Amino acid sequence: MSDSNQLQQDCLWCRNIIEDCKKEVGKRIIGQTQIFDGIFTAMITGGNILLEGVPGLAKTLAVKTFADISGLSFKRIQFTPDLLPADITGTMLYNQSESSFSVRKGPIFTNIVLADEINRSPAKVQSALLEAMAEHQVTIGEQTYQLPEPFLVLATQNPIEQEGTYNLPEAELDRFLLKVKVPYPMPNEEVKIVKAGGNPENIPVRQILDKETLYKCKNLVDSIVCDDRIIEYIVSIISVTRPEIAGAQKGNDILRYISYGASPRASIALAKCAKAHALFQGRTFVLPEDVKVTAPSVLRHRLVLSYEAGADGVTADELIDKIISFIPVP
Fold this sequence. Notes:
The two termini are 31 Å apart. The chain has a five-stranded parallel β-sheet with strand order 2-5-8-1-9. Strands 3-4 form a two-stranded antiparallel ribbon. A two-stranded antiparallel sheet has the order 6-7. 38% of the residues are buried. It has helices at 3-26, 33-45, 59-70, 86-89, 123-126, 130-135, 170-173, 187-196, 211-223, 228-240, 243-246, 252-255, 264-280, 288-299, 307-312, 316-326, and strands spanning 49-52, 74-78, 90-95, 100-105, 112-116, 137-140, 143-146, 152-157, 178-181, 258-260, 304-305. By secondary structure, the protein is an alpha/beta fold. The protein has two domains: 3-215, 3-Layer(aba) Sandwich (Rossmann fold); 224-326, Orthogonal Bundle (Helicase, Ruva Protein, domain 3), CATH 1.10.8. It is 48% helix and 15% strand.
């Protein structure tokens, strides 16, 4: 079998694995498939994900369910105003009997970390995640410790309640590969949810994934072909978000609504996510549609909107849609 045929077979295998996972997730969660798509994309591309939605939309349940079907270790950290950085990373403890210090590792030493309501804690606590998210390591005292692999931070935040919350700094937002907006369920889905009632977390699910399977899917993402014209298309979309560079290329209706655009990290993230989306479809190559589908989740948290955008009620998603609409498709 040729290498191209083998790659095609592997892509179809990965797509079937994902379909099996969705069936297991569906035993507990009705709808909300975009949450799982985002989590799986982040896992196989080595990124982190920010979930935004009002309470009661199964964000936490989705993360727990993914941990169950993947067989990975999972810990949840409830972010509160009185949380300390050491409560996340760990700290040095003094052993009086031995007159020495020992390390007590924090809950971040796991495969999947759920940072629940991350914007409830101040910036000092939020920044405790930066090293872990970027480099998969934690420094405690004078020693640096590697985190277990695979490692994934899934953070949630409530977009409605702003009192007593702290906006995430731009440096941390940029560390999230994706920001997934969790919508309300459709009426027909909510009927099923109400009929089901009870405690869905008690419904058993099979373990579909393991570390070996995840690593194989991760290697497949790297094998997906992304043509140079697709890369140029991605860079064109990203560069248009930068007012100081692309002002002449876009209309004032977009330019005046963006204060700061996305960095090259966004271009890399969009290329990775487009490859992952192509893989989910069982394809060995990236199409422009893969870029269009993934662009909102990659960019919506990386654009710093102007005061004028807030005054006019313009959202990041609306600007992204406009940008994609006038960038020529290769």
